[in-house]
Specification:
Aspartate Aminotransferase, domain 2, about 40% helix, alpha/beta, single chain, five-stranded mixed beta sheet, binds pyridoxal-5'-phosphate, 14 helices, Aspartate Aminotransferase, domain 1, about 15% strand
Length: about 400
């Protein structure tokens, strides 16, 4: 079928769909980076970023992706030879740990597999075993984008507090920010990292690091910090270039301004409620399809699932066939399975993911689900019936 007419839809867990208004805001001549509109506009981003993160503390941005934000955050609080604890619930915890090792930081990784959340008892045991309280931080993934599990940041805080352990709680909210509820101050995260291209609806290219006064205190005791990653000048710039450690990411900032305007206008509670409802519509459809075929959730308990991404499994190679069909015949690109099996192996064709982050409404979700239903039919893949009407009932319930 021709796809020249109509919009294509990238339903992967980042980069996400960019609003036209964001794209329009970026389509402009190069601005003056020394004075005027851009400078004023950049100042205005910081309070709104803090509203999205639900923090009164400090917000910084970096030219870079999520990996850059990982490294930026680590560089401010842990030195080579120091130690961090990493509970991993899919692929991304391992990625952050690896980045720490690249900086010479020692990592203690607890692997919870690919379909389970962090088990707080095991983390507590690891912290108790650290009798000298040497562990400098816990690198905690809020939503793991490969398994689509959502971990409990507040529970992690309580474990640290109960044990009186001083390790910083560092949260990776790259997938979840602006999709799943996250309360930096109330839940007690000391550091939080995010990136522009997921819930923040802006092209890849900006990383964000938020930190509180406890983290600032740890930073102040570091013997040295990479000039580029140092969050001190960025969070308290006396000259404009200090925000970005050099030339500003001018057009990304214009795009981000509009994305934040959209989020502020909707209100964070409503942003989360919309993601919740659309996720539940998707899950209702998946439940139905699963009744008559091999499709299954990677995370069976809905309370543990993210509202940004849903990881699914089915008999190989049907996941890949289904993805290829929706992309070539319906203009909907679904996410590949990530970190579940070695890429290219027969098993890898039994995993896929639905991204549902950011600029998303019911008609987009219904279009995606309808396209998947069409793929099941076109490819003769066994599946249960009633998926689309189950999804519409969730949407209709409001
Ligand atoms: C996307 C993502 C990353 C990596 O971000 P990049 O921009 O690809 O570097 C890290 N952690 C999580 C949870 C993510 O979803």
């Amino acid at each position: 079928m021709t796809r020249t007419h109509g919009r294509e839809y990238l339903a992967i867990p980042g980069p996400s769909v960019m609003p036209e208004a964001v794209l329009r805001a970026m389509h402009r001549a190069a601005p003056n980076i020394y004075a005027g509109e851009l400078v004023e506009m950049t100042h205005s981003l910081i309070p709104d970023l803090k509203k999205v993160a639900r923090t009164k503390h400090h917000a910084t941005f970096y030219i870079g992706n999520g990996h850059a934000a990982w490294e930026a955050a680590l560089s401010n609080v842990a030195a080579a030879g120091e130690r961090v604890l990493v509970p991993a619930t899919g692929r991304f915890g391992h990625g952050w740990a690896d980045q720490a090792r690249g900086l010479g930081i020692e990592t203690e990784v607890i692997d919870f597999g690919k379909s389970s959340p962090v088990d707080m008892n095991r983390v507590a045991d690891a912290l108790k075993a650290d009798k000298e309280k040497k562990l400098k931080a816990v690198l905690f993934t809020h939503v793991d984008t490969s398994s689509s599990v959502k971990n409990d940041v507040k529970a992690m805080r309580l474990v640290l507090d109960d044990l009186g352990h001083p390790a910083l709680l560092m949260a990776d909210c790259i997938a979840s920010l602006g999709c799943d509820r996250f309360e930096m101050d109330e839940w007690g995260a000391d550091v939080m990292v995010a990136a522009s291209q997921k819930g923040l609806m802006t092209p890849p290219g900006l990383g964000f690091v938020f930190f509180n006064d406890r983290a600032a205190e740890v930073r102040s005791k570091m013997a040295c910090v990479s000039r580029y990653w140092d969050w001190v000048p960025r969070s308290n710039p006396t000259q404009y270039f200090m925000y970005s450690g050099g030339t500003a990411p001018t057009h990304h900032l214009y795009g981000l301004r509009v994305a934040l305007d959209m989020m502020m206008e909707e209100g964070m509670e409503n942003v989360w409620a919309r993601h919740d409802r659309l996720s539940r519509a998707i899950w209702a459809a998946v439940e139905q399809w699963g009744q008559g075929g091999s499709l299954r959730f990677n995370i069976t308990d809905p309370a543990l699932r993210s509202r940004a991404v849903t990881a699914l499994r089915m008999d190989a190679p049907d996941a890949t066939r289904l993805r290829e069909w929706t992309e070539s015949e319906a203009g909907v690109t679904l996410g590949i399975g990530l970190g579940m099996a070695e890429p290219g192996t027969p098993e890898s064709h039994g995993f896929f993911r639905l991204g549902h982050m950011g600029h998303l409404n019911p008609q987009m979700v219904m279009g995606m689900l309808g396209s998947i239903e069409a793929a099941f039919n076109a490819l003769d893949i066994p599946h249960g019936s009633g998926a689309l009407s189950a999804a519409t009932r969730v949407i209709a319930a409001g």
